[in-house]
Write a structure and sequence with these properties.
Number of helices of chain A: 9
CATH topology of the largest domain in chain A: Tetracycline Repressor, domain 2
CATH class of the largest domain in chain A: Mainly Alpha
Shape of chain A: elongated
Largest sheet of chain A: none
Radius of gyration of chain A: 19 Å
Strand content of chain A: under 5%
Largest interface: A-B, 39 and 39 residues
Number of domains of chain A: 2
Distance between the termini of chain A: 59 Å
Oligomer: homotetramer
Helix content of chain A: over 70%
CATH superfamily of the largest domain in chain A: Tetracycline Repressor, domain 2
DNA sequence: AAATAATCGAGACGGTACGTCTCGTCTTTAC
DNA sequence: GTAAAGACGAGACGTACCGTCTCGATTATTT
């Protein structure tokens, strides 16, 4: 790796670190690219060169934090693995800095299609796919009714979580997650 | 009605109308209170006197449009009523100006607790309560298992809809609504 | 005096009193008619009904304070009377609230011809005339050269005082006044 | 001159030119920094970056016009030089744009100590000093009484001029200036 | 005593400007 | 030759006053 790209990498890191720092202090919605550049000791151009919008920087900062925290466990027990995984996601969404950052990012995505696309492609969809893959495994093993739409199942698992997170702002407790899971498997189970 | 409150009421209406108008043209996120006031032919203070933030004005404009569109039908067939009602909500969320306006409002709520509270109190919660009341009626009639948590049922109905609306941005078709409903009643039915 | 005009008079007094009060606290330039009305517990209209501008109110408040402080003494010794009188004017200009108020009024007069005219007619000119009348008496008594222009003499007495007050902002000491007077009489005395 | 300061210098010039332009059209008191920026095709920040207040901009615009118009002539005849110089100042104060601009500036100085200081330091005091220097020369040559205070003489020359300009608003004719000068030299001459 | 008229406080209203902030682009300077 | 530093035009922020206006509630005068 050349020293230039090393240097470039340093700035990238520094800017994302400052974004998270300032975000916790100021709130992710209130903060400006101008302020991030100032605090990071970096020219505004250096930020604009790397990210096209505040949302894009927000997304990268989020992923830099937790890109690998969302790998599913694999114990052989599909239902237990799902439960464990959703507990982890719920915990993540609850705690700073991920929670508020993700909240801000979803807000940003509502009026910035680029952010919406990137967020979906890099965060939401991979999660969905892994969940659906697990459900698929379970169905193959006969733990699930073969005619139940797995995308729908995934939506029924995720939807209530996001609903609480974005709309009612109630806490994402493990109990709640378990309730949803149990309800789903009750309806989804083989007859 | 006195002429003062008449006058006051006129401005209030005019400002909300302009907000909806400008929103459709410009996009709700892009628009400024300044622009709304200018277009409505009204001093900025006259807006700030009525609403504390852009979000508050957004919410009132939304409610002025559809405050009464969300009353449940009552045909005696609870499941059919629920279905009809959710279809109406899905249609509303799909079409402008309600759809984009509501999307912008949810985004605003993510960083403005006042908006979040007001949105929940004036829009989301009433919907929830009416849905839960219907489910309650159905349970009383023996159409639902007596030990199923009705708040959870409501969340399983609403969550996937909001998930599609806010996260995956797929269309809120009647088919999708029906799928969710069927899945829920399958798991929820009396054994 | 009728009770209506009594009432009216009360407000007039109250407003001018508040103007002086607020002026001392806030500075005469910073203060708004709005603030005066608010503090005086009076509708804005009640102020605008009486005065056409802030300058007009300023002038009336000034005159209400010191309308009668500027009557010349008359001891028979013209030069001593002049000296005593100018000392009094200098003292007045030095001390609040008259000094700052008068300063603000002169400033206001620079861009408001109505204020300029009123200030000149009601304050400056009467002073001038009394000074010239005294000088006239002195000339009649042979204390002054008969061919010296008395308006010019008055300007030479007043000018340096205003120059210090408005331009250099040095203190208007009795010593300075005496110097000017002595210089004037030296040049003006009969040969 | 580097191209940065070139660019900066261009804006500075353009803003001051616009200030003078707008001032003549609108009146210096009526005009806003906002209007100057708009007319000059410049962001408001670009004005605020250079001047802290309207008064400061006013002063710089004034000085940009006539910084070098006030150098004394030097013919060897001190009294004639003084007369010529004061005639020039009187003419300057009479004619737009200097006259109204200077008037507005003096008004501004009455409630803005920074403007007062700057105006005195950059305009009034240099004039004073040059006048006093001339008077000093005259005294050295025996044209003036050695015991006459020269600062006082300067005040007696300037005061009546400012008095007419600011208070009575009578025209600053050469005749008037000559009268003042003659009166001063009559009193000041060697005995 | 009732009717009429004037005055008042309160403050809404359309405007305009304030001085600050951020946007995204563009220049210059320094390492 | 790449950044930092930050100037720049643009324009929104939320606040303050302007001077005009409308409103009911007192007062005062007239009938």
């Amino acid at each position: 790796m050349t020293s230039t790209s090393r240097r470039g990498h340093d700035r990238t890191e520094a800017i994302m670190r400052t974004m998270l720092e300032l975000g916790r202090e100021t709130g992710y919605a209130r903060l400006s690219i101008e302020a991030v550049a100032r605090r990071a000791g970096v020219g505004k151009h250096t930020v604009y060169r790397r990210w096209t919008s505040k949302g894009a920087l927000l997304l990268d900062s989020l992923l830099s934090l937790h890109r690998h925290d969302l790998d599913y466990p694999d114990t052989g027990d599909v239902r237990a693995d799902l439960r464990a995984q959703i507990h982890r996601v719920a915990d993540l969404m609850t705690a700073p800095p991920f929670g508020p950052l993700f909240r801000a990012l979803v807000a940003e995505a509502q009026h910035d299609p680029d952010v919406a696309t990137a967020l979906h492609a890099q965060f939401t969809r991979p999660q969905e796919e892994r969940t659906v893959a697990r459900l698929n495994t379970a169905r193959d093993r006969g733990e699930l009714s073969p005619d139940f739409d797995l995308d729908l199942a995934m939506a029924i698992l995720s939807g209530p979580l996001y609903f609480r997170f974005l709309i009612t702002r109630e806490p994402l407790t493990h109990e709640y997650v378990d309730q949803v899971l149990d309800a789903l498997f009750a309806g989804m189970g083989p007859r």
